[in-house]
Design a protein that fits this description.
It contains 28 helices and 43 strands. The strands form 8 sheets. The chain has a 9-stranded mixed beta sheet. The radius of gyration is 46 Å and the shape is elongated.
Length: 973
């Protein structure tokens, strides 16, 4: 009959091994016939019905097979080479420990399968005899150490502790089956001795006792005997073993680890000795020796209590690192600093105290303060300042907050207390008060904060910024009856917002979308503050006064307020004048422009009679030596992106104009970079964003270069009360929709040939310049090349008038233009290149299509606008993007052609808004023409980044700003 058995046998390569076999058992034979070894990799190949537990046993024994060991431990090509080249160290350190681990697991499973016979095959015999059967003792056993101490030394013996008696192993020919964990075969019984090494038993295979000489007793007692007392059952004679029931205590120690990094070490104190929490033995032992009187005190580990302490630490935010080391959990799992650890200790000192966990500081360079601390914060509002009263209480010490100011601004956490202890300034104080202290000023030992920063105080008190700009409509100012217009709800909100700033002496940026009536909102504000209700309305605008002729005309500025000045691009002066005549005829307007304008330092004697002076940026720049001698009430800038360069002469000039209040209007507060925003905000609220160097360090670099969301939020919150921006989509819902479509155009073969040749030449020249002169010197060359490629993408004739071929884009533009005009629609055509418009102009003339044209050289600007708006047969308006970006109201058009993309999406938005603005009743269709496989497609992708920046803060004409060499090369690839 075939049987399934397990054989313990000596393998010449691997040592003692457990091997599964099928055997034949013949009744009359003393031996068993080994049929075959069981295939542990695939037991199902055998015609044998294994039980579930037998299959589990085979799964364990698979880990002992040649194939498995070869797969894990060898890089050789064959099993034979594996054994031939297996060195002893690798075998001892890795292979044999693996074998013994699974041998031991095999014995555990065999206890559960008593019906599976186990045989021990002596290597000296070739046959396996029935009498070789053995069994596994059903329980783990432990060694019993017998120590007899006398004046002659120590008599030491070792037995196995069974359930009924102690078993001696001497002279019983024991066989070591596994070393660690230990298993020993004594006669026909296999004993399992966990947590013990076989080396302890080897001396007692042949003798009953070991003698330790008297001179070696102290060392032996302190080492071997102490270890035995700690881990095993010991029967002692000549010395004492006591069990101590003292309750242990826990200690959390702040010290340095082996890498000199701060860490919290959990120590467990049993009686008078401290142990690390991760130490392995289940008991702790202390030895005392008084004149040869040895006493071992054994403390049984309170593992349940120790685990509870560890759970308390972990549940309160600590993480076990290595050994007994703990540190606070952080999201990035970065190295913890002393600051995060002190912060955790301060936050959890009550928890430690409640659970009797003591805290100590050990072997540190400094002693850190752990205890109660607080900060009281109060602000008193003055006329222009908030007086900040802040006091810090650290333990028994009261510290004026002004002493901590330089530490917080410098980002330093450590402040030395009078007793020498280090107080770690909480990180939340940096977050809560850092911005306040950054903008506050120290005056005569006091901390003062300009009223412009009141949102920072709101944040420090409740963690939120106050949205001061959302002034309730019902609590707003009454619009003057003399305003000849009914303000829309969003315009009324804008009026109230500006009046709120006016009442609080703040400046503001009205940044509504083009076409939402910023001019009207400003006129309503000026009409309100000059209180013209009692003035007699003039039906015509009086002639401007002579310098030497006092004003006797009724209705002129008698409000008691100084005159207000509005600066704008020259092309908008007449538009503003018409808006004042239309909406506020009681306000008297003085035009300070033209070559015949009066130039005198005493110009104030004239303009003081008027409510408002209209002038241009160029005039302010050229005549600042005259204008700066009069202090205006309001100084208002329209299209304030004109002052975006803080180093320009225009910015220098407008900064010299004296005034009481300021306001700017723009649809595009950011064209190139955040510096544009700084220039305009610094004009209306000087110092709000610090000086330019500070602003670049604090905001431009972190936001534009590093995408720092925290600094982005801080900047938004700083400017929020002083910037009002509404989009048409949100507030002018009655406007018909804009339908935008990109028309992609294939270049003609001859156009593509010119384009590819030009691109190759530009790229080669750029590579040389990069190599020889660097990025900065290459920018001008790149900009030239970029312009030429953009022009060729439109039509090669823009760079070579002799070109005889056609342009794919130009043909598509003309086809669409013809269809639109035939259907009697009106269209605005915008291009960055005047030569582009001239090509279209030639086609329009040849086909006798009437048109208007506006470029930088146009002198009769208003006339060409009126022709397009009022003449039914004038259906095309050719406009250069630069000349027509502002100040135009062209709502008769319902189509907009954008012939070429530019980096600044705001410029395109301005163009669209010439038609899509208040008063438009028709759907507006926008066509963008893009040549495929050209620089134009790459420009569209780069527009996305510009749009995000502009949308975030309230668009660049230098495309290479903030671009590195790789990015510029990619542009021309």
């Amino acid at each position: 009959m075939e049987k399934f058995i397990v054989v313990l046998t000596e393998n010449r390569n691997l040592g003692m091994l457990a091997v599964p076999y099928f055997v034949m058992d013949k009744d009359n034979s003393p031996s068993l016939i080994l049929n075959e070894m069981v295939n542990t990799e695939n037991p199902s190949v055998h015609d044998y019905n294994f039980t579930a537990k037998e299959l589990e046993l085979l799964e364990i024994m698979k880990k002992l097979s040649d194939r498995y060991l070869f797969r894990i431990f060898s890089k050789e090509k064959t099993i034979k080479l594996f054994y031939d080249n297996l060195d002893q160290k690798k075998f001892n350190d890795h292979v044999r420990p693996h074998i013994e681990k699974y041998m031991y697991a095999c014995f555990d499973k065999l206890v559960q399968c008593p019906y599976v016979p186990i045989y021990f095959k002596d290597a000296k015999y070739s046959n396996l005899y029935k009498t070789d059967v053995i069994s596994v003792y059903e329980k783990d056993v432990e060694p019993v150490f017998y120590f007899d101490l006398s004046e002659q030394g120590i008599d030491y013996s070792l037995k196995l502790k069974l359930s009924g008696e102690d078993l001696s192993i001497t002279h019983k020919k024991p066989v070591v089956i596994t070393n660690s964990p230990c298993s020993i075969l004594i006669r026909e019984k296999l004993y399992r001795i966990p947590d013990t090494d076989s080396k302890k038993f080897l001396p007692f295979f042949d003798k009953q006792h070991i003698k330790i000489q008297a001179r070696s007793v102290p060392t032996y007692m302190d080492t071997f005997v102490a270890n035995a007392v700690r881990n095993n059952h010991v029967v002692a004679s000549g010395f004492e073993i006591k069990e101590d029931k003292t309750e242990p205590t826990a200690i959390l120690s702040l010290e340095q680890d082996i890498r000199q990094q701060p860490t919290l070490v959990l120590k467990l104190k049993y009686a008078n000795k401290e142990y690390l929490s991760h130490s392995q033995p289940n008991a702790l032992v202390q030895l005392s020796n008084e004149k040869g009187n040895y006493v071992f005190t054994k403390y049984q580990r309170h593992l349940e209590w120790e685990n509870r302490i560890i759970k308390i630490l972990i549940s309160n935010g600590l993480k076990a690192r290595n050994g007994a080391n703990f540190s606070p959990i952080n999201e990035q799992d970065d190295e913890n600093t002393i600051y995060t650890i002190i912060h955790w200790l301060n936050n959890n000192k009550d928890t430690l105290q409640e659970n009797n966990i003591a805290f100590i500081q050990k072997n540190l360079e400094n002693n850190y303060f752990i205890g109660e601390f607080s900060c009281s914060f109060k602000s008193d509002k003055g006329q222009d300042w908030f007086d900040l009263q802040m006091k810090v209480q650290v333990g028994d010490y009261e510290i004026p907050f002004i002493k901590l100011r330089k530490f917080i601004l410098a980002g330093k956490n450590e402040y030395t207390l009078p007793n020498g202890d280090i107080f770690i300034i909480p990180q939340e104080w940096f977050t809560k008060y850092g911005d306040i202290l950054l903008y506050a000023e120290e005056k005569k030992g006091k901390v003062k904060l300009n009223r412009m920063y009141y949102t920072l105080l709101e944040k420090s008190s409740n963690g939120k910024y106050k949205e001061a700009k959302n002034i309730p409509l019902e609590n707003g100012k009454k619009v003057p009856d003399t305003l000849n217009a009914l303000l829309r709800p969003y315009q009324l909100r804008g009026f109230n917002w500006m009046h709120y700033l006016h009442d609080n002496s703040f400046g503001g940026i009205l940044a509504d979308d083009m076409g939402l009536g910023k001019t009207l909102q400003i006129i309503a504000l000026l009409l309100k503050i000059y209180d013209t209700q009692g003035l007699q309305e003039e039906t015509t605008q009086p002639a401007q006064l002579n310098l030497f002729e006092p004003s006797t005309i009724e209705g002129f500025n008698t409000s008691g307020l100084a005159t207000s000045l509005i600066a704008m691009p020259t092309s908008l002066i007449h538009n503003w004048l018409n808006e004042f005549k239309k909406f506020a005829p009681t306000l008297k307007i003085y035009i300070y422009s033209g070559t015949r304008r009066l130039k005198s330092r005493e110009i104030g004697k004239i303009i003081r009679h008027y409510h408002v002076v209209l002038t241009s940026y160029g005039v302010v720049r050229n005549d600042i030596d005259y204008l700066k001698h009069y202090k205006f009430h309001y100084f208002i800038l329209d299209e304030s992106q004109y002052i975006k360069n803080p180093n320009s002469k225009i910015y220098e000039a407008i900064s010299q104009v004296e005034c009481t209040k300021k306001m700017v209007l723009t649809g595009t507060p950011i064209e190139n970079s955040l510096t544009d925003l700084w220039a305009q905000m610094n004009f209306v609220n000087k110092g709000l964003l610090g000086n330019l160097t500070f602003f670049k360090r604090q905001f431009v670099v972190p936001i534009s270069k590093n995408n720092n969301e925290e600094q982005e939020e801080k900047l938004q919150n700083l400017i929020e009360p002083f910037v009002l921006r509404r989009t048409k989509e949100k507030v002018a819902k009655e406007l018909p929709p804009v339908n935008e479509q990109v028309l992609y155009c294939d270049m003609t073969a001859e156009q593509k040939k010119v384009y590819d040749s030009e691109k190759s030449g530009i790229r080669n020249e750029l590579l040389k310049t990069f190599e020889n002169k660097g990025v900065e010197k290459s920018t001008f060359l790149a900009l030239q090349g970029l312009t030429r490629l953009r022009q060729i993408a439109n039509h090669p004739k823009l760079v070579n008038p002799e070109f005889q071929g056609e342009s794919g884009k130009f043909n598509l533009i003309i086809n669409n233009l013809e269809n639109i005009t035939n259907e009697k629609h009106k269209v605005l055509i915008f291009s960055s290149f005047v030569k582009d418009l001239k090509l279209i102009e030639g086609v329009l003339n040849s086909r006798k299509i009437k048109y208007s044209k506006l470029t930088g050289s146009t002198t009769n600007r208003q006339q060409v606008v009126d022709d397009f708006e009022k003449k039914e047969d004038c259906r095309v308006f050719l406009i250069s993007l630069k000349a027509g970006g502002v100040g135009l109201n062209l709502i008769s058009a319902d189509y907009v052609f954008l012939l070429n993309p530019w980096w600044n999406p705001a410029a395109e938005a301005q163009a669209i808004n010439r038609a899509h603005r208040i008063g438009q009743t028709k759907n507006v269709f926008v066509y963008r023409f893009i040549s495929i496989d050209t620089i134009e497609e790459k420009i569209m992708k780069l527009q996305e980044h510009k749009s995000k920046l502009a949308d975030t803060f309230i668009n660049s004409n230098n495309p290479f700003k903030n671009m590195n060499e790789t990015e510029i090369k990619e542009l021309f690839s």
